[in-house]
Description:
By secondary structure, this protein is of the alpha+beta class. Helix content is 32%, strand content 18%.
Amino acid sequence: IIGILAAIAIPAYSDYTIKSRVSEGASLSGAAKTAVDIYYSENGTLPEVDVTHPELAISLAGSYKAKYVSSVSVGTNGDGAATADPGVITVTLKTASDLGLGEAGKDGTNTIIYTPVPNGAALQWNTDDSTVPAKYRPKT
Length: 140
């Protein structure tokens, strides 16, 4: 009985540990998501792609760091290059081994990409373009 319980509990515990590490990125992205939400509600459009984002009044990507998060940026990918879509938030996580993942995401990185989808007067956030496996991604 103990062997059966251990066979079920250990993999579940590993998944919960990885989810908690990835969720750190979700919490750090909150300020950026709020800034994009406010910009959209005041202007009716998403902010243009601009690395500095003076209109959003948020800090630069390098200032959003934590134990498992390398950066949080608006309108740029993890390498600092501008994205094609305005308002996209990219959370770049640390290495796969830091997170407890056996391997990196589908393009060699571990990113959570929040894509804003206008829904009337509000925005919904989609994480389908993220490279972190779907079972570990935060719910939007």
